[in-house]
Give the backbone structure.
Amino acid sequence: SAVISQKPSRDICQRGTSLTIQCQVDSQVTMMFWYRQQPGQSLTLIATANQGSEATYESGFVIDKFPISRPNLTFSTLTVSNMSPEDSSIYLCSVAVTEEAFFGQGTRLTVV
Amino acid sequence: AQSVTQLDSQVPVFEEAPVELRCNYSSSVSVYLFWYVQYPNQGLQLLLKYLSGSTLVESINGFEAEFNKSQTSFHLRKPSVHISDTAEYFCAVRGGYNKLIFGAGTRLAVHP
């Protein structure tokens, strides 16, 4: 299994600013995933972060808007840049251990 | 490409009644299927999973799901629901590189 610590748990931000979300895992993992859950919606994968290489972004998500760092096998950050109210969502970090995915508690972001 | 369809966005049911939450998938590779539950204002928790072997899988709290390859379905069932089962339920299929593709979710509302 894996225990994921994500912070902040929630934040209220002004439009035009940026927020960096941190994700710490209690074991070394090859891939870490960042998902977005917009209000009342399902989870959508933003990108996959591998240590030592650039993140792979899903269609509709770009590095300039959601830069990701992966400095080691237990840590990753996701930055939401130049925020607008449409970025108000829950952002979740996830890892896969064997065949199972584990999720952090999420970061509830409100942009005003 | 993999995809997941949850046919019901909301399912209202009375306490102690049976319930079925429907999920259909599309996958061109080996199928790994999951049901996740999200209680109000909480993170995502794995409810049960199908990886291989027996097509009927069970959770510790009385839910079960059956993998049906011919119908490409993985419906979730419980013979008698409790108020505490009120939550959002997400069906997911594992895609390439261990990422998860989620359905839109089904909101189960259990009424007394």
